[in-house]
Every structure is written in structure tokens, then in C-alpha cells.
Design brief:
Blueprint (H helix, E strand, L loop, with lengths): L2 H15 L12 H14 L3 H8 L3 H18 L1 H4 L5 H15 L4 E11 L18 E8 L4 E3 L2 E3 L2 E3 L10 E2 L10 H27 L14 H17 L29 H15 L3
Parallel strand pairs: 1-5, 5-6
Antiparallel strand pairs: 1-2, 3-4
Helix pairs in contact: 1-2, 1-4, 2-4, 3-4, 4-8, 7-9
């Protein structure tokens, strides 16, 4: 993170993170407040390690992380995390069409497991199929009603097999071993376009390493920590902050469900939309 972005954070969060000196000790400076929190979010190191590095107590590190993440959520989240509207939405749709060749796409959606310390009560609610405790973090990322083949194709999100097929969530054909060439081609195009969300998760966890390991915070604070990391990620992307491409990959997000289309009473509209996309791509090959 550049000094310019760091100074911006200090200025925007000063109201939330400035404290007065007391009779017993001087208040921790604002810049140290922000620096300690960023260091923890970027590395996930233990509180004792940070306390030693900055010459403060472990309890102070814990309070700083809590206060900083809550300040990020309250002051900056709504500014930097928004679903695009109007002209901005059209720019995203054009971006997916231009870069990935996928029409009517407003974003790619996916989820990722974030390891946590489960609470003593209801701890089984956090036990995932991998055999450890986590919360599922779901995100929509951008690229960076038109008619297709006679079907009204709505603006949609692109999902993986874990998601149910909906008019506004498009996923590939389930691979049962007998897909047509056209269906396989649609799956390839959709998979390419969905790379945006997998890359975004990788960059997010690469920058803010606390998300790539167990979050050793109270379960009630976990959503706030994740929100702070996402806000900081978008700030870094907007300000063109350098990203260490040589960092080890955090890995793609894990699917949270099973492959296959829903059975039973099925809404046929998303099936028609997917078939229209299949025919649309067939004309471009």
C-alpha cells in the first residue's frame, strides 16, 4: 500500500480512531493504529507478535483490530462496495462482452470458506464438509433485457455448479458424459468469464492473508473483518496499488454444493435462456 493511500485511510478514519491521553498513559497515535491493523490483516500474525513489533500490549492490538475493522465498515464500506447502477452497470456488461465474450453479464458470483474458531454453542453449524469450521464468504465481482435468439435474456450473474439455475444466475450444463459440442462450448465460455471471481478471491486472500488462515477472532467479529478486507481490497484496486504476483496463490474458492441441475418442479425460463446462449455462441464459432 502506498503512503498516499495510507494517509487517506488515516484521514478518513481519524474520527473513529483518535483517542485522548489519560493520566496513566499516552494514547496510541492514529498512524500506529492504522499500521497495526493493516499489518494484522495483511499477515494474520498473532497478537503477541504484533505487540512485540510495535511495543504495545496484546490487549491493545486486539482492540485496535476491532476498532479499525468496525471503522472501515461504518465509514468506507458503502463507498467502495456497491452493486453497479445505470451507466456503471452498462459499463460492466460491456466489459464482460468485450473481454470475455459473454453477453448480458453483470458479474460473476462465488463463495469461499474462511476458517474460524467456532463458538462453544452451535459449533456444529460451522462444521463444513471438508472437516473443519468455517463461514462461507460469498462475493460478486465485475469484469475487470436484450433479445438473443428470440429469447428475452435478462441481465445475469455467472455461477458455478453449486448455484441453482435461475433466470438471473447462469451456470454451465452438468457434465453427464453426453454433452453436445455446443453445450461444452457454452461451459468453456462461462468458465472463462467466471475466472474473474476466482482471480478476485486469489488477489483478496493474497493481499489480506488473515483470510487465508484461521481467523482467531470472536465469531461475531468475523463478518466485520471480512468486510474490512473487501473494502481495503477495492480501495487498493481503485488506487492501482501494486499486487505481488509472486506471492503463493491462495487457491480458488471451494464449491459449496453439488453439480447438476435441480430436479422436480423446475422453472423452464432459465433453461430456455441457457439454450438461447448456446445457439448464440454457436453462431459465433
Amino acid at each position: 500500500m502506498s503512503k498516499t493511500t495510507f494517509d487517506m485511510l488515516c484521514q478518513r478514519l481519524s474520527t473513529f480512531l483518535s483517542y485522548d491521553d489519560t493520566t496513566f498513559r499516552r494514547a496510541i497515535p492514529l498512524q500506529m493504529h492504522v499500521g497495526v491493523a493493516l499489518w494484522w490483516l495483511a499477515t494474520g500474525v498473532g497478537y503477541c507478535t504484533l505487540a512485540h513489533l510495535f511495543g504495545i500490549s496484546s490487549a491493545s492490538v486486539c482492540l485496535i483490530v476491532n476498532d479499525f475493522c468496525q471503522a472501515m465498515r461504518d465509514e468506507l464500506l458503502r463507498e467502495y462496495i456497491q452493486f453497479p447502477q445505470l451507466d456503471e452497470l452498462q459499463n460492466v456488461i460491456r466489459g464482460f462482452k468485450t473481454r470475455w465474450g459473454f453477453p448480458q453479464c453483470a458479474g460473476a458470483i462465488d463463495g469461499s470458506h474462511i476458517p474460524v474458531i467456532a463458538p462453544s454453542e452451535d459449533h456444529t453449524d460451522y462444521f463444513n464438509r471438508k472437516g473443519w469450521h468455517s463461514v462461507i464468504f460469498q462475493a460478486v465481482v465485475d469484469h475487470r433485457f436484450d433479445e438473443i435468439q428470440g429469447i428475452q435474456v435478462p441481465i445475469m450473474l455467472l455461477g458455478d455448479p453449486a448455484y441453482s439455475l435461475r433466470p438471473w444466475i447462469m451456470k454451465g450444463y452438468p457434465d453427464t458424459g453426453n454433452l453436445t459440442d455446443g453445450q461444452r462450448y457454452v461451459n468453456q465460455r462461462l468458465s472463462r468469464a467466471r475466472m474473474t471471481v476466482e482471480c478476485a478471491f486469489g488477489r483478496l486472500k493474497g493481499r489480506w492473508r488473515c483470510l487465508a488462515k484461521r481467523l482467531d477472532v470472536d465469531i461475531a467479529l468475523v463478518p466485520t473483518v471480512i468486510a474490512a478486507c473487501c473494502t481495503l481490497h477495492n480501495i487498493c484496486e481503485k488506487h492501482n496499488e501494486k499486487y505481488g504476483e509472486d506471492l503463493p496463490a491462495a487457491g480458488p474458492p471451494e464449491a459449496t454444493g453439488e453439480d447438476g441441475d435441480p430436479v422436480g418442479a423446475v422453472d423452464t425460463q432459465p433453461l430456455r435462456v441457457r439454450e438461447a446462449l448456446t445457439q448464440h455462441f454457436a453462431t459465433q464459432r
